[in-house]
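Protocol step 6 of 9: fold each sequence in the batch and record its C-alpha cells directly after the sequence line. For illustration, a two-sequence batch is reproduced in full.

Sequence one:
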Amino acid sequence: MQTSQIPLPPRKTTNSPRGYAKAATLMSIHERLAMFRRFKQLNYQSLLYMQAEIVDLQNELKVLVIRDQGLDEHLEYDLDWWDLAHGKTRSGRQQFNKVKILRKKLVEYNTALLQQVSLAKLESPNKRDLDFLWNWFERPTLGNFPILSPDRESWDPENHDDIMAINPRVSPDNISRWFQNLLSFYHRQLGEKLKLKKPDPPGQGIGENMHSYRESIMEATVDYVVTVVAATIPLTSIVVLYLLKDDGWKLGAMVIFSAMFALAVKTMTNARKIEVFAATAAFAAVNVVFLSPDSTPSPGPQTKS
C-alpha cells in the first residue's frame, strides 16, 4: 500500500524543536495531550502466542513426566527435587530442563499479562483534546507535519479507539463537560476577538496560534453555578408551596420541583442512581409538610359566661 507523500516543511535555521522533539515539547507543556497507541490487538495477539507456547511446553512436560514414571532409575523424580534436577544422563535431565524453559516463559507471560492489565486501566483521552492533537499535527500554523514517517498516522481518526492518555482531562460531572463544550464556542465568538486567552510560553516553537484558558476559572464558575442552584431549588420550592392554597396545585408543584432537583443532582454531581433516588426522596419528604392540614393551634375550651 502506498502512503501519501507529505511535502517537507521549509528548512530554517532555528533554535525551536523539530520533529519528534516538537511533538514531545507540546506534550510536556500540555500533558493532557500526551497520548499514545495502546496497540490492543497486537498486545492480545502476543499474549495468545505466549499462551500457546506455554500450553505446548506443558504438554511436552506431561509426556516426560509419564515417561520418567515408567523408568526405574527415575522413580524418585516425583519425590526428590535433587534427583530431578541432577539426573545422571541427558535423558534424565530432560524433565527438569523443560521445567526451566517453562519457568522463563511463565515469567515473560505473567509480566506481559500484568502490563496489559495496567494498560487497560489507563483512560482514553478527552475527545476534544484528541481532535485538537490530530489537527495540530496536520495544520501548517501549528505542528506543521513534525513527523513524516508512517507513525504520523497514529493519531488519525481511524485509530482514536486505540489511543490512551497519560494524564487525561477529566470532567468530574456533566455540567463541567457542558462548560468545556461551551468554551470552544465562546473562544470563536468572543474570547479570540477580545484576546481573553492565555498565550503559550514564547519560544517553545509548538505553533503560532496556540492559546489556552485557565481551567481554574472554569472550575470556579462551575462551583458558583452549582452552589447557587443547590441553594435556590429547595428554597424556591418551599416559597411556592407556602403560597399555594390548593392541594392539587401543591401536588403538581411538588412533582415539578422534585424532577428539577433530581435532574440537578444528576447533572451537577457524580451521584449514583441510588444516591439520586435517596436525595430526591428526602427532598420530597420535606415538601410533604406543606400538604399537611393546617397546624395552627385551635383555641382552648371556653366557658360560657
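Sequence two, same batch, same settings:
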Amino acid sequence: MRMPGWVTTAGPRWAAAATATALFAATALTSVPAGADDGWSGDPVASSAADTQGCAQVLLVGARGSGQEAPYGDMVDGVRSELASRLGEQRPDVDLAQVYLDYPAVSLDDIDTASVQDMVLGEESSAAPAYVASVEAGTTELERLAGAEAQRCPDEKLLVVGYSQGAEVATRALGSGALNGNLLGAVLLGNPLHYDGQNITELDGTASNRSYGLTAALYYLKAELAGSTGDRQAQVQRLIEVVVALYDGTVDAASFSSAMSGSGAAVPGEAAPRTWSVCTAGDPVCDSADALSRVLTRSTTLKEERSDGGSNHGSYTPENLPDTLDAVTAELTGLPHLAAPEEQAAATDSGRRGIILATLGVAVVLAGGTGVTLVRRRRAGQGGDEQAED
C-alpha cells in the first residue's frame, strides 16, 4: 500500500540492478539448447578444421588408404556406417563428431622390382620416398590432431579407423604415444605394418600369426641387410633369402620386433587391448611375403600384385569384421549416458522456473534495500523545504 504523503523514486543503483536482472532473465529464457545431432549422419570435416566443431564424447577419425579419395574411402566408410547403425539402436545418445585425416594418401602402384631393391639396399629410406612422405604427413597430422583435441576437449575420446596406408599412419601415431591419453580405440585394416608379435588384438581375419605387412617387411629387410658386403648381385641374393624366411615363417620374432621399434612402428603394450587389427590371408599389403618374393625375382610388380590380390585387400567389409565391430561397439556403448531429449526439456523448463523465481527474489531484495529513496513532502500550506530520508 502506498503511504500518504510519500513518493518513491528509483535511484541509479536500482536502475542498474533491474536492467542487469532483466537482461539475464531474457538471455536465459531465450537460450534453449537445440536437440543435438548424434553426429553419425553428417559429413566429416577435414582434420585440419576439427576445431570448427563442438566438443563431443567421441571423435571418429577416418584415415583412408593409398590412392583413395577423401574423405574416408569405402573401407573406413563401411565401418562408420555399421557403427552408426548399431549405435542408433543401442546408444543413440552417444555424442559423436567426425573428421577425415587430411593427408596425401599417395598410391604405391609405381613400385617395381628395382625400386623395392633400392628401398632396401639404398641408404636413404626403406620405402618409396613419396609413400614415406605421405605417411609422415599423415602421422604428423594425426599426432597434432590428438594433441589439439586433448587440450580443446579434454573429455573427448578418439576412435581411429585406418585402412591400408591409413592403418600404417595410425600405427605410427600409436607408436609415438601421441594417442595414449584419449584413445577409445583404433581399428587397423590391411595394415602394411602388420607383423608377428605386434601389440594388437586380432579378433577377425584369416592371415596366420606369421604374416608380415609390406612396409614392415621392407623395414626388417633393410635392418637385416644393413652393412652387408659384396656386390649388388650378392646383396640381392641375400635379400631374397630373407624374404624366403619371411614366407616360411622362420624369421626370429624378437629380431623383427626390434626392427619395428627402431623404425617407430611398435604399438605400446597399454594400447594393445584397444587396438584391433584385421588381416586377410593373401592380402599383399598386410600379408606380403609371397607377393614380395615374386616382386624381387622380377616375376611381377607390386601394382600387379595389388591387382591380383585386390579382392583380399578389399575384403575389410563389415560382414568380415563381426568380432572387431562387436568389440568397438562395446567400448562405445560403455560410455556414460547423456540426458535424453525429454530429460533435457524437463531440465530446461525447471531452469526457466528457477530463473523467474530468482529474478523476482532479486527484485524484492533490491526494492527493500538501499537502492530506493523515499521522499517525504511537506503537507500543503506548511511551507519549508522538502526533507529526504534514505
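Proceed to step 7 once all outputs are recorded. Observation for sequence two: The chain has two domains: 6-32+341-389, 45-333.
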